[in-house]
Every structure is written in structure tokens, then in C-alpha cells.
Amino acid sequence: MAAQKIMDITVKTGEYQDPQSGMTKGRYQNVGSLMLGDDGRQFIILERWFNPAGIPNPQNRPSVILSLFEPNGQQAAPAPQQPPQQGYGQQAPQQGYPNAHGGYRG
Question: How many Å apart are CA 64 and CA 61, to the nearest integer?
């Protein structure tokens, strides 16, 4: 059995005004995944392009907060049926991640 994705790892990149409700909401960018391995241990896969130094830091804090969301706002999907590619340098498929490249979570 292959590793299973448990959660999306996101970072807040800003805020926006929801035109329908008028509420201020966070803008999040997906930067990785929390995974569950065959041995029951959890591990994190971060996108190579993610650089925490590039996240807005108006309060000049020494750390960055990453948030966990269930994938697509639902329960974690079952592991894919095909075996994973060898090595960490492989690009993960972007299936079913509406906010994988700059979308919004409200």
C-alpha cells in the first residue's frame, strides 16, 4: 500500500474581501501535504519552490504559521492505485486541488 495524504499544508498569503458576504477572508496557498506512511508514521512533503522568507510578515515575527486543511475540504482521498515514482524530486500530480496554485480557501 502506498502512503496516504491526510491533510493539505497551506500558508496564509494575504486577505481579501468576499464580494457576496463582505467579510474579510484569508487567501491561502497550498505548499505541501501531511502524509501517512505504510508504517503508521506521519511525514510532510513540502513543495520545493516554497520559501517561508517570501511570506508577508507585517509583525516582523521570527516564524511562519502553516495551516492544515482536509484535502478539498473533505476527508482524505484513498491512496492512488499505481506505485509512486522513485525519489523525492518527482512532481506530485495536482489532481483535485482547487487552490494548489493560488486559489482561495474561505
Answer: 8
Order of strands, sheet of 66-69, starting from the edge strand that comes earlier in the sequence: 42-46, 24-36, 4-17, 66-69
pLDDT tens, residue by residue, 42-67:
999 999 999 999 998 889 999 999 99
What is the reported pLDDT for 97? Answer: 39
CA distance 62 to 19: 33
Question: Could you report the per-residue pLDDT of 93-106, keeping only the tens digit for each?
Answer: 443 434 444 444 44
Q: Which three cell numbers stand for residue 33?
A: 501535504
Contacts of 106 (CB under 8 A, 6+ apart): 18, 25, 26
Q: What grid cell was written down for 39?
A: 508504517
**How confident is residue 73, by pLDDT bands cut at 50, 70 and 90?**
low
**Is residue 9 within 8 Å of residue 30, measured between CB atoms?**
yes
The residue count of the chain comes to 106
17's grid cell? 474581501
